[in-house]
Amino acid sequence: MSDFMAMRQRPQGPLGHLRSHLSLVLQLLCVLLCAVLLVAILAQVSKVPSCPEQESKEELYQDLMQLKAGLANLCRPCPWDWTFFQGHCYFFSKSQRNWHDSVSACQDVGAQLVIVRSDEEQSFLQQTSKTVGHTWMGLSDLNKEGVWHWVDGSPLELNFTKFWNRGEPNDIGGEDCAEFRGDGWNDSLCNGLRFWVCKRPAGSCTPQ
Q1: pLDDT by residue (tens digit) across 33-55?
Q2: Phi and psi, residue 59, nearest 5°
Q3: 3-state SS class at 70
Q4: From the CA atom positions of the chain, what is the Rg in Å?
Q5: Of 16, 40, 60, 158, which has fewest CB within 10 angstroms of its CB?
Q6: Beta-carbon neighbour count of residue 101 at 10 Å?
Q7: 14 vs 94: CA distance, rounded Å
Q8: What predicted TM-score, i.e. pTM, was given to this entire model?
Q9: pLDDT at res. 3
Q10: Domain edges within the chain
């Protein structure tokens, strides 16, 4: 027994020391490899979005809110679908109505069926109406034949009669409402369908 214990306590030779070092190195390599794998797995998991669709919706919503805020700060004297000219806003319709319904359509948006007040405005309106077709203006002689008034009750001034087309107004068949046609004005039946133009003062150009 004492001989066996003595053999156990006897110092190891070179081979024993080598085996001991190899074992320790293998254990360290194993721990290091496990640590590297763990870090790699965690890195990959962190790259995976939790909910791509939700993140996309949130980003889109944020972009829309930023765009809305930017538009609110733009300085526009007229609404987007109106045209600015010399201090007024003009709406050129995309559909057709009779004269009376055109008057109501403009009133519904706080405007009037257009009243011409200057040569420059006449040129602007005439050229624009030519691109779309015959267009109502806010002028009629419904109250008294041959006496033309604008929708605000003001009479047609003499210097504006030059805008009538040759031979107009002729009141053929009871034509009591005025329209832009070709290069000038024409009287037409009020129940005919035409495009129309609304006019209202431009707003102050200040950021909201």
Answers
A1: 656 555 655 656 555 454 555 65
A2: -65, -40
A3: helix
A4: 43
A5: 158
A6: 15
A7: 101
A8: 0.64
A9: 41
A10: 2-72, 83-201
Task: Identify the CATH assignment for 83-201 out of 3.40.50.2000, 3.10.100.10, 3.40.605.10, 3.30.70.1130.
Answer: 3.10.100.10
Q: Are 137 and 125 in contact (CB under 8 A)?
A: yes
Strands 195-201, 83-85: parallel, antiparallel or unpaired by DSSP?
unpaired
Torsion, Cα 10 15 16 21, to 10 degrees, reads: 150
Per the structure block, which two tokens stand in for 69?
């805020």
**Which residue type occupies 110?**
G
CB 145 within 8 A of CB 106: no
Closest CA to 188 of 173, 175, 171: 175
Work out the pLDDT band at 60, boundaries 50, 70, 90.
confident
Our CA dihedral for 77, 78, 79, 85, rounded to 10 degrees, sits at -150
Strands 149-150 and 83-85, by their bridges, are unpaired
Residue among 196, 199, 200 nearest 136 (CA): 196
